[in-house]
Structure formats: C-alpha cells, structure tokens
C-alpha cells in the first residue's frame, strides 16, 4: 500500500478552507499556477502515523457547474487527476447552501470526506447538528471541527487516513430523475471507452446539457442511439421545469432541504448580532451610505499608514544609490548599479508597504465577515454598467494604486468579470498621477485648482464605466455573473490568519511582478545614456542638451508629429515615455528635459503649454499606458494577451480624449 496520498481541499468561499489548509500543512507550502491559467495553485504536505499526504488547495467554488475558471479547474482536477480523497469543507452555520457542492462531488463518484467547520459558531447560534444521522444519509464520513480554534484537527487527520485507505463512493438519489438517469446509464455502459468515467455523473450532466460531458460523448459509438432519446427527455423535462437543468437544480435543493430538516435543530431565541448588524449594513439605502465611509477608511488607512514606510524605503534606496555613485569610480558601472538596478529594486519595494497595508486591511475585513457584504450592497448599481458588485472594491482601490487594486480582483470567481474589471482598473486615477495634476493645475488653473484636479478623477470614473459597458457588449458579450455570495457571521478577526494571508499576497506580487519592473527601469536607463551615436555618458541623465541626443529623445521626436495636434513638443512626449516607469516620474522627467528643478518647472511650462494643451496633457497622463508595475501585474493575473490589449486600447482612448479636449477647447477659448 502507498505511503503517500494525494488529497484535495474544496469548499465554498469563506468556509475557512485556507485556515484548514494552513492548520494541516503548516509551513510546508508550495505556490505556483494551475497549468494553462494564471490562477494560483497552492500545495502543501503533512505526515500522520507514518503516512505522507500531499494537500492540493482547490479554488473556492459554490458549485461545479464550470461557468468560471475556478470551477473548471476544480472539476478537471477531480475528474482527471483522481485524488485519493476529496475533503469537502462546509460551513456548519450555512449547511443548506454548502451541501449543494457536496451533492455534486458525490455525483462525480469522488471519495469524499465532509468536514463541518465553524461548529463552535453553529453551537453559539443554537444549532444542533446530528453528525451520525448526516453520515448515515449521505453514506460518507463527517467530521466536525473549528479550524480557527484548531478543534478537531487531530480527529480530521485520523479520518483522512481511514478514508483514503477505505475508498468508496456514495450515491444520492433524485426521485424525480432516477428513471431518466438509469435509462441514460444503460446506453452509456455499452461503450467501453466511457467506462473510465463515472456513468451516473455523465448521465446527470447530459440532462444538464453540460458542454464538457457533451464533448466527451460526441465521438462515442452510442451517440446515434443516445441523441434521440436524450432529445425526447429534454423536451419532456422542459415542459415540467422550463429547462431541464433547472429541474436538476431544484431536485438537489429538495434533497438538501430534506437532509437539513432531519439533521439540524435550531433553538428559537433572540436575534443574533449578525442579524441585527445586517438589518442595517445590508439595507438597500442605508447600506450604500455606510459603504462610502467604510471604503474611504480602507483607502485612508492603506495610503496614510503606508506613506511614511514607502518614503523611508525610497530614501534608503536613494541613499544607497548615492553611496554607490561615490564609491565606484567607473561612471558607467556606478550609474548602471545606482540609476538602473538599485532604482529598479527600489521601484519594486516602494510598493511593499502599500500592498502590505492594503492586503492587511482587506484580510481584516474578510475575516470579520463585512467584506462578503460589500458586493451584495453595490451589485444593483454596478450591474447597470455591465459590472458585478464585486468589482467595486478593486475599482475604489485603484484611486490609491492600480497594482494592489488589480490583485484584489482575485476575489472574483467569474473569469470574464475579473478580466473586465482588470482592464478598466488603470482608468481609475492612482495617487501617482496627482503630482502631474498638481503641477499643471497650479500653473494654468490656480483659481480653480481643486476643481480641475477633481475633474480628472471624475473623468477616469466616467470613462471606466463607459468602457466597461462597451466591452461587456462587444468584447465579452455576456451579462455580469449573478451574485451568489456567502454571508458569513460577523466575528473578531484572527490576527494570525490576517497576517498569513497578507504575507502570501504581498510575496506573490514581489516574486512575479518585481522582475518585470526592474527590467523596465533598467531599459529606460539604457535608452537615456545611449543614442544613435553611441554611449553618451551618465551626464545625459542630468543634462538636457546631452539627453537630446539619446534614444529617449529619438523616440520623443518620432512621437512629436503624432501629438502635434495637441501642441506638445518632443520633450513633453519624451516625458510620457518616462511615465511608463511610474506616473509620478513624468514631473521629474519634464524638469530634467527642460533643464530646471521641479520647483521652477511651473514657471517654465507656462511657455511650453496653453491651458487647453495642458488640460489635454493631464487627461492623456490619466488614461495612457499603465506604468510598468501595473502592466506587470496585469500580465501576471490574466496573461500577455490582455496586457497588450489594455496597453493598446488605453493609448488609443487617451489620444482620442486628448484630441477631443484640444479641438473643443480651442473652439471655445
């Protein structure tokens, strides 16, 4: 008998799956990606009674219907990899919803162990669950635990060992569908090639018109006999239920209702804290009004608290750069190290405090139970623009920094919703653009400076919503996914869980996106110190006359005719190139290119821009190319194809908006 087993953890979001994974595996964790997709894959190991167990943490899903990438990953893994055991974690306080996934796993014929987590909370809510009766009805082992308090973990490990040794699959009967299921199975079993699958699962999925299973049987020898019979069944079921698949869903819930009625007893009593809070926090009107200050506090906490730490990191790397420059006599090597590599690493690490405090705040809200309610509150408004309610958190985070905002889309289950939210996120004006607005608004619109800066933020929001509606209709051609969200009980967050989740998310960014950012900074350095005539010297970084002969200047002068309708010279165009490294670099680049300090720049640009061309420049800086860090994280999350798509559409959109502002502005003023 094998001394190593492979087990999979699966459950709805917010059931405590990650907490249980950590409790089982400790520090023996390996993080990668699932093959062919950018969804994170987490694996770990533990030993018990001399046996080794490899634990695969499957994405959190509500069902295995395979409408989202997470559902596809979970389904394909269970069917194709055939783990020795599937550990299904369910929230004991919401058994009705959680058992839906359990039934689907049973349909697949998997070897299942059901874990009822949060039993301590269930008891507090006056719920009594008859574990023995539940085991008897389902025909599988059931283990009650509290992952947070580490209650029942040893019992779970013992049950895992017993269940992997005694593999078995259990069946749940669907009274109104059994005749159809048996008839289809009798046809499927005549094809030897299909016997490697669970035939009952195939039969149920054929009744649900599941594309994955239809593809499995389309080349089968029994297709000719199966198709007319299946068509007749579908017509018959459609008359009863409207759609056959809806009938299956309804049947599952009938079975679940009967199970819960038999095994769960609830003591009547006063309203719980969760119920009282939800009466206020999820109210259609009051909930939205309260959501605004909650998000503002999240935003305020993240960037105010992280600000000094980011400034300190920036100072340290600036100091290191100066030390390197003064210590190494070879100017090329010293500049490469100081202005290229050290600045590149600094550009990565300066994000560390922002990411750390953002993910700390998000993890805190997640563990408290409030985070799950935010999409529920915002869903109706967001749907009008083709966005799901869950998009609101990443979009609001974009006002601070688009990098962690894009990473925050990981909470979205539907892949198309997630891609759409990521694509429009760079249109939300991050804090790095503020120095640009402040420079131009102060120089050209001093009497209305605050209003002009605010208009940039408003323009970004309006464009994001319009683009979302357009992409939803013409690119994705689907409706935003229905909001199915577990509303867990409110609780005091557990610091160890919050800190562990924070570190895992920050480390993922630094590991994957960091290399691209460093590479981008070094590339811009090389373009600045080299030109068509060869090496210009590091003086080019400080001398505008020398820089005018660099590749950066060549690119700027090449772009200049394209932007001549807006009235921008080659120096303004070159500064936009530097802005790809980080948007706040645009101001420093303009100062360098015009040969003045940042303090005297506002006086000089009055001669290089008009109020109209300045406003158009501000709008272009809002919309055009994402910074290298944002582009890197887009690539990390959804791949190069969408990163390039985002890059192209934003440049085109920026040009159209800037040109429109220029034309209309010149007609009015």
Automatic annotation (TrEMBL):
Residues 4-166 form the FeoB-type G domain. Mg(2+) 1 binds at residue 22. It is found in: Cell membrane. It is a multi-pass membrane protein. Gene3D superfamilies: 1.10.287.1770, P-loop containing nucleotide triphosphate hydrolases. Keywords: Cell membrane, GTP-binding, Ion transport, Iron, Iron transport, Magnesium, Membrane, Metal-binding, Nucleotide-binding, Transmembrane, Transmembrane helix, Transport. PROSITE patterns: G_FEOB (PS51711). GTP binds at residues 11-18, 36-40, 57-60, 117-120. The chain crosses the membrane at residues 340-365, 385-407, 451-471, 509-530, 550-568, 575-594, 614-634, 646-668. It comes from the Archaea. The keyword Transport applies. GO terms for molecular function: ferrous iron transmembrane transporter activity; GTP binding; metal ion binding. One of its GO terms (cellular component) is plasma membrane. CDD domains: FeoB. It holds the Pfam family Gate. InterPro entries: Fe2_transport_prot-B, Fe2_transport_prot_B_C, FeoB_Cyto, FeoB_GTPase, G_FEOB_dom, Gate_dom, GTP-bd, P-loop_NTPase. Mg(2+) 2 binds at residues 23, 25-26. This is Ferrous iron transport protein B. The lineage of its organism: Archaea, Methanobacteriati, Methanobacteriota, Methanomada group, Methanococci.
